[in-house]
Structure formats: C-alpha cells, structure tokens
C-alpha cells in the first residue's frame, strides 16, 4: 500500500544550521509512528515542517499523493494534517462542548461562532468526546479540567476538525501515570483509523503504542525498526549516551 505521508530529502536551514538534514521517512495510513531522538535532534522541527509552521529549504513532503511541501498551514489542516502543540490551545473560558463546536466550525473554514451551546450535542462531537472519555464533562469549563483532560480535549478538537494525520509533540509530558496509561489507550483506539506521529520520551508509553519507531539524530534518521531493534542498536546508544 502506498504511504499516506512521504518525506523525501527534507531540509531546513536556520541561518546556516541544518536542524533537519536530508530527512526521509514515510508513514502508512493508520500507522502510529514514534519519533525518538536526543534533545535537539530535530523532532519538533520535523512536526513543524509537516504541518506547515516552518517551510523547508529543500526536499519534499507528500500527503495522500499530493505535494504539500509549501502549502500554507491552514490548507494542510483542511487536507487533514492536524498538529497538537505542547501548550494546549483550548479556550479556557468555554466549556468542553463549546470548544468542540469551535473546532468543528474551523474545519469548514468559517469564523468560529461562539454560540451558547451545551445540551444538544450532535452525533460526531458526542462520539469523539466519548472516545477520549470527556463526554460526561461536556458542560465543564475547560479551565476546570486536569492537565490530562486538557490534552485529551485538544486531541478531540483535532478529530472534530477531521484530522486524518495527528502530529503529537510529547503528549504525555506532565501527565500522571494514570493519565499516561489512559492516553496510550486513546492512541491505541485511534490508530488504524487515524495516522499518528508522536514524539515521546517515555519508553514505557512508546512500548504500549508503537510497533515501529524512527530515531532522529542531527536532523536525519539514525535508525528505524521495532522497539527491540532500536534498544539494542549501537549507534542509538552512542547518540543518547555519547559512548
Ligand atoms: P527536538 O524537538 O528534537 O529536541 P528541535 O526540532 O526543537 O529538537 O530543534 C532542533 C535544533 O534546531 C536545535 O538545535 C534547535 O536549537 C534548533 N532550532 C529549532 N528551531 C529553531 C529556530 N527557529 N531557529 C534556530 N534554530 C532552531
Ligand atoms: Mg522538541
């Protein structure tokens, strides 16, 4: 099967420094790929390049067969590329349900209409909130959610925008053990239907969700394979430990 996302020879140059350097990898539809690598390896920059927050200085990004290399961020979002940032972008003064309405109205490219809304939650939003375990909290203000619940709301908002490819940068950072476990369950339920690229340091979490991992170092792929293969890879040990 053809890959959903194909990255070929990608490069970005920040004033002479190549944060991403001849990077190539691909992801199949419905796959969950974990991106690993030491600090500064270029993981976040790679997600920035895929979602269009940063434009590359070389290489190509194809999504569902279409060249999106230089497409503006909002157009990629409409194609189904959804990026979750480390700092959640939920509206704290709105309820969970209202946040979902805003996300849905963004999907169609309309200005968000902040209408008062709560009880007559329609089908797709209800289903999405149930998938992330937030339906019971639909009338709660986002400001009152726990850290983990806020992250799940943001994932739900990406789903409400019809994101097919979910880009997640360290989603479990700051989560409790229970929240991390729940996040693994959510990801496992979403993959298959959605493609997920997740940057994550917590190897226990990675083991629970990923079949395949890609290790970046100095802006390119250092190693790819199963978690067992990566953990015994000598080059990976050197990149992380320096010996
Ligand atoms: P990671 O997420 O793997 O820790 P990043 O992708 O954030 O790494 O950064 C990769 C490298 O690029 C780092 O050395 C970082 O300092 C540098 N970098 C990231 N963004 C910029 C930028 N806008 N300008 C200059 N250097 C940057
Ligand atoms: Mg990062």
TrEMBL record:
Record keywords: ATP-binding, Nucleotide-binding, Transport
Claim: Transport is one of the keywords in the record: yes
GO MF entry, a single one: ATP binding
GO cellular component: plasma membrane
Residue span(s) of domain ABC transporter: 5-243
Top-level taxon: Bacteria
PROSITE patterns documented for this protein: ABC_TRANSPORTER_2
Listed name of the protein: Urea ABC transporter ATP-binding protein UrtD
Taxonomic source organism: Georhizobium profundi
